[in-house]
Design brief:
heterodimer; A: 508 residues; Rossmann fold; six-stranded mixed sheet; 17 helices; 22 strands; 25% strand; B: mainly alpha; 0% strand; globular
Chain lengths: 508, 347
């Protein structure tokens, strides 16, 4: 099957989101659709999925013009759309999710559970997926949820599957699993449209690419003929840096020391020390416990044993308020769920942590907040309209900068950034790296939690790699390579050549 | 000339559309205006002079407002509760509990607590007011603690509290008829320039304070943050439990004020019937005023509008002679209609 979109135009009010875009997608290929946030990718795919209607242009299926007035039209034409937020019902088993809305029935309208289980198992066998159809969706990790979504799309006999950033919340091994699945599908003649910000993944798995910028198609072709640098350049319109940015800078006194910190099964026996002005990375695979560890240090989780020292003094931190008062700031992962308050405007989202600090008798000092925000907006280069606009109107990168400004307002000495570039486009990513380094220059201890080894290598002075809740090893400076990080992250031991000794003794 | 008129008209239409879409309270304010016009029309113009008409019109309004002041104050607290994503079904029961508490204190008969210790007159009344408010605050705190520390869903916690408070009150007040001193009645019936508007004054003052709290204070903004995204709020250093606890405590406090107003208006209280359905009216006022039951979105001013709409509607139904049993149907339709009006298209 071939889907052709010709001369598609779409505007929202005065904002032209798509300006005459023509693209085609064929079955049996994996197409990458690239572009920064706001480039028009989602709009284009929503038009293809029948979620919104185009203003001008036409869509052809195998040469015949088709109309997608509603999602069902598009599905009928053999197009499945897997949204970034998965549409699975957690409290139902996998097989019921597979047949949601088109359940096979027995006599008297009873659900035919046996058939659903059997069919699901068949499909899984065909796809080489080792998953129990009767498992509850809530028990699955993100990659399997993604896989269930893909299988559901498959079971509707889709010939083209749109995947909107399927890998953002996945760890490397999970991504590998999804990729295997995608390859299987391609080999079975299914066409895939893969929307992603991760260019290495695109290079790795996709056959064709198309780059949108400001609503226009700026480049398309075979992935084998371009490098990731080329793609990044197409996306932002200029060269993008990839070299390590971390530079030697003078570090100060120790600001944070953690000794044998343990909490339930989440993390165990974590010990490390961080100095002012350092940029320290924490990385690992899913379930490594790094987020949980730092949420505990931030007073949002729990601690069963171990000690935390701030500037050499032992402290107990049992609430986030206390952590903030101690000069700790924590920018959480999953911005939408954990960091954004979507009913509030930009200014308030930047002020929410400092209301108590800048207030008198409980009355908020709005003047100070405004001044602070103007300062932050300029120094962080936040691109926005009026600050009374809702935070959700901003692009991902700018939203993240607003969240960051919230924490800088608290004047932190220790800044913990958990997946700081999640859902952020290439340009804003670079901005955030620059901000991290300039904060370190201001003697703030910056801790970067990330699952992207490249990111860690780019900005961090050293990195601690976690595995199953324990710190597996530490890599400094040039020893931080993707290979070394991966070895530690999968539970291996790293030895440095020449010295011939283990850098870190294995736990247990 | 003609073109000018058209462009002015176009300008107004655009402005109206823009307001309608962007100002959450605009549609509800228009609805209120319509109700006010209707109310005025129904009152008619069959009077000897403008002065007489105006007198009647004002009196009619004072009646409407005064009759609804108590529930309007409760609705303000309910708005905060709903904004945190919670609900309080116990307000009617808290009303009789705090009302009974006040009457027991201030009773000038032989079982009156203050009378027993020889405390009478104005001091007794002042202490009654303060202690009743403290009692309301305490009951609210108990509910808040059940919700936050006990992790009982607000619906269940307040449903339980509703039964407990009313039942206990009825039991203890069985066969006991406190005599409220006439001075106490002055709280509601004190006249300003010949007008009995004290309950309205309380309502306006409390609404103004609540408006200021919701817009300008740490507490008020944290309510929105908690209701909108509890996780984000906690990870931003907000003590979510404390905010919720204080919201329920404030609810109890406001109910106790409504109870004092009610007792001082009539001098007695029907512990079995008073406040029944109050929670639904308060929720209705908040919802009509644009407060989202999901939390995170709510307007004190909207609740004031919502209350006025419901109050005027009651009055209109009365004037039209709509059978009493049918009146709730109209109220129900107004609630649903108001939410339909405010429904915004997504995307």
């Amino acid at each position: 099957m071939q889907i052709e979109m010709k001369n598609i135009r779409k505007s929202f009010g005065s904002n032209d989101v798509l300006k005459d875009v023509s693209l085609s997608f064929t079955a049996g290929h994996i197409h990458a659709l690239l572009g920064e946030n706001g480039a028009g990718k989602s709009t284009l795919m929503n038009i293809l999925g029948g979620v919104i209607q185009r203003d001008e242009g036409a869509i052809y299926k195998d040469g015949d013009q088709v109309e997608f007035n509603k999602p069902a039209d598009s599905q009928e034409a053999g197009i499945a759309f897997i949204h970034q937020e998965l549409n699975l019902i957690n409290d139902l088993p996998v097989y019921e999710n597979m047949f949601m809305g088109r359940e096979p029935k027995k006599k008297f309208g009873m659900l035919d559970h046996e058939k659903m289980i059997e069919d699901t198992q068949d499909l899984f066998n065909r796809m080489n997926i080792d998953l129990d159809p009767k498992a509850m969706v809530s028990d699955l990790d993100s990659s399997y949820k993604q896989i269930v979504e893909i299988c559901r799309a498959m079971s509707t006999n889709a010939s083209i599957i749109i995947m909107d950033e399927p890998t953002t919340s996945l760890t490397d091994s999970e991504i590998e699993r999804v990729f295997d699945m995608m390859k299987t599908l391609r080999n079975q003649g299914v066409g895939l449209i893969f929307i992603s910000h991760k260019l290495k993944e695109v290079k790795h798995i996709c056959d064709r690419y198309a780059v949108l910028r400001d609503g226009e198609l700026v480049s398309q072709g075979d992935v084998s003929e371009v490098t990731t640098d080329d793609l990044a350049r197409f996306m932002v319109g200029h060269d993008v840096r990839t070299e390590p940015l971390a530079r030697s800078r003078e570090t100060g006194e120790e600001v944070l020391r953690v000794e044998n910190l343990t909490y339930d099964q989440q993390f165990k026996d974590a010990s490390f020390s961080i100095k002012a002005g350092e940029v320290v990375g924490f990385t690992g695979l899913l379930g490594d416990g790094r987020s949980e560890l730092f949420q505990s240090i931030f007073g949002a989780n729990g601690i069963s044993s171990g000690k935390i020292f701030l500037k050499g003094k032992e402290v107990t931190i049992d609430s986030t308020m206390k952590a903030i008062n101690h000069g700790i700031a924590y920018l959480p992962r999953n911005r939408k769920e954990n960091a954004i308050i979507s009913d509030m405007d930009i200014l308030e989202n930047s002020a929410v942590a400092t209301w108590p600090k800048f207030s008198r008798f409980g009355v908020i000092n709005r003047e100070i907040h405004r001044e602070q925000f103007i300062k932050q907006r300029d120094s962080l280069n936040i691109k926005m309209g009026k600050w009374t606009e809702n935070i959700t109107k901003l692009s991902g990168g700018n939203q993240q900068k607003v969240v960051l400004s919230k924490w800088l307002n608290t004047n932190p000495e220790i800044l913990i950034l958990d997946n700081p570039t999640q859902g952020v486009d290439v340009g804003a990513k670079e901005d955030i790296y620059d901000i991290i380094l300039s904060l370190a220059d201001q003697k703030i201890a910056v801790i970067v939690l990330s699952s992207e080894a490249q990111e860690i290598i780019r900005v961090c002075d050293r990195t601690l790699v976690m595995y199953h809740g324990a710190i597996q090893g530490e890599l400094v400076g040039e020893d931080m390579t993707e290979h070394q990080i991966m070895t530690l992250a999968t539970g291996g031991d790293v030895t440095i050549e020449g010295e011939g000794k283990s850098l870190w003794k294995q736990e247990q | 000339m003609e073109a000018g008129t058209v462009s002015v008209r176009r300008g107004f239409v655009d402005w109206f559309k823009e307001r309608w879409v962007n100002d959450p309270l605009f549609s509800i304010f228009i609805a209120l205006l319509v109700m006010v016009v209707l109310q005025t029309l129904v009152l008619g113009f069959d009077f000897n002079s403008f002065g007489e008409w105006f007198q009647t019109w004002v009196n009619n309004w004072i009646n409407i407002l005064r009759n609804n002041a108590g529930i309007a104050i409760v609705a303000l607290g309910m708005t905060f509760v709903i904004m945190t994503g919670g609900i309080d079904l116990s307000v009617g029961a808290t009303l009789v509990a705090t009302g009974a508490f006040a009457m027991t204190l201030v009773d000038i008969g032989e079982r009156g607590l203050f009378a027993m210790i020889g405390l009478t007159g104005v001091p007794a009344i002042i202490f009654t007011i303060l202690l009743t408010m403290a009692f309301g605050y305490l009951l609210g705190t108990l509910i808040g603690a059940t919700v936050t520390k006990g992790l009982v869903p607000p619906f269940i916690a307040t449903l339980g509290a509703m039964m407990v408070f009313r039942s206990v009150t009825q039991h203890f007040m069985q066969g006991y008829n406190p005599r409220v001193p006439t001075e106490f009645l002055q709280i509601a019936s004190f006249k300003i320039g010949n007008l009995m508007i004290m309950p309205i004054v309380y309502w306006i003052i409390i609404a103004a304070i609540m408006y200021y709290v919701s817009k300008r204070t740490t507490f008020g903004r944290q309510i929105i943050a908690v209701g909108s995204n509890e996780r984000s709020a906690r990870l931003s250093g907000i003590n979510v439990d404390k905010v919720k606890l204080r919201v329920y405590a404030l609810m109890g406090l406001l109910v106790s004020i409504a109870a004092i107003i009610q007792v001082s208006r009539v001098g007695s209280m029907d512990f079995a019937g008073a406040g029944r359905g109050m929670e639904m009216d308060a929720i209705a006022a908040a919802v009509v005023g644009g407060t989202s039951m999901m939390g995170g979105r709510g307007f004190i001013l909207g609740t004031v509008y919502g209350m006025l709409i419901i109050a005027v509607l009651n009055n209109l139904l009365n004037l039209f002679g709509v059978p009493p049993l049918l009146r709730d149907a109209f109220k129900g339709l107004i609630v649903i209609g108001a939410v339909l009006l405010q429904r915004k298209k997504i995307i």
